[in-house]
Amino acid sequence: xxxxxxxxxxxxxxxxxxxxxxxxxxxxxxxxxxxxxxxxxxxxxxxxxxxxxxxxxxxxxxxxxxxxxxxxxxxxxxxxxxxxxxxxxxxxxxxxxxxxxxxxxxxxxxxxxxxxxxxxxxxxxxxxxxxxxxxxxxxxxxxxxxxxxxxxxxxxxxxxxxxxxxxxxxxxxxxxxxxxxxxxxxxxxxxxxxxxxxxxxxxxxxxxxxxxxxxxxxxxxxxxxxxxxxxxxxxxxxxxxxxxxxxxxxxxxxxxxxxxxxxxxxxxxxxxxxxxxxxxxxxxxxxxxxxxxxxxxxxxxxxxxxxxxxxxxxxxxxxxxxxxxxxxxxxxxxxxxxxxxxxxxxxxxxxxxxxxxxxxxxxxxxxxxxxxxxxxxxxxxxxxxxxxxxxxxxxxxxxxxxxxxxxx
Length: 408
Ligand SMILES: NC(=O)c1ccc[n+]([C@@H]2O[C@H](COP(=O)([O-])OP(=O)(O)OC[C@H]3O[C@@H](n4cnc5c(N)ncnc54)[C@H](O)[C@@H]3O)[C@@H](O)[C@H]2O)c1
Fold this sequence. Notes:
single chain, alpha/beta, Rossmann fold, 17% strand, binds nicotinamide-adenine-dinucleotide
């Protein structure tokens, strides 16, 4: 068992531990000797069927993956709750019960509906997104409060938010807080938010609930406003083919770079939305794990609502497409870029300067998006090329009705 000597050993609960980020996170902590448990309601697997967007690499059930991990002796065991699943939004009492028994030092909360297009698809899906994400976060906060009240234990909540909460204001974006002077008075206030979908708005609400719980109940929390994650492998997913994480390339769940890589491999045009000037923060999945681990090792003070902007580099969507085109061409693929009507309502030319020094100061060592990283991703996706469904990559969900959308 590999234990980093200087790391404080922790009891870690990963909510959403069956997901793209949650599963590698659970293994990452377990590999370092931390005691890990996962709670997930498996709703993502059902939603994949609903949108017809299954992940590219065959991914066994959560129970099988956990059993496999535990049999490999590659670190600490990963535990599941009684009955294997907990819906943290629908079943607050089960979550509280499990948290009181597992007594986590750290709760990493990934368990949300994470797709902006899904939340814009229909009324019911917008409602489900907001209800799922808000109710889940409130249940987690009440569970942390119960843990403190009944067991005297002060768990650290690490919550995954998104850079999309801020939108693209015409000023520098700070890490969560803004010093304001207004009519001669000064205050430090949460940075203003301009969410770009009902999904992003649900994350803004989460941040407000958590900040309030820190103030009201003395909870310690880290809100990680994460950029767009790309990548397939981590140190632990490569230990066995069945430990793979869910790589989505469809228009509903696939993120920009992951989508472009799949398009390049099957030689269909890379679909850049509009002019492609939308600039966002990006990070490698390996850095998501690093950031969460760094936050876990350096908890905030009781009552502190700490915010980090979690990304390592910023690119425009067109920058990304051009990188994939160039690397794909070098590998002998015929890659072309297509500008299609932007299904979203967002600025395509804008100022973007978010700060992101907090995690670097904790020791983050970024894995940058080099040509080698893109080459590795393309080569890995080529191994599953036959499974790529070209029909699920083009966007079908529009932010506003067709008759209102501008043409490009
Ligand atoms: N992937 C990214 O690029 C990215 C970027 C910024 C923020 N985030 C945030 O990070 C988190 C994880 O993202 P991901 O890409 O791994 O998503 P994912 O959908 O792969 O994982 C989320 C997991 O949570 C589970 N879940 C959802 N609602 C639940 C509930 N009520 N009870 C129990 N489990 C529930 C799902 O079944 C799924 O396994 C999300 O909160 C997302 O908003 C992701």
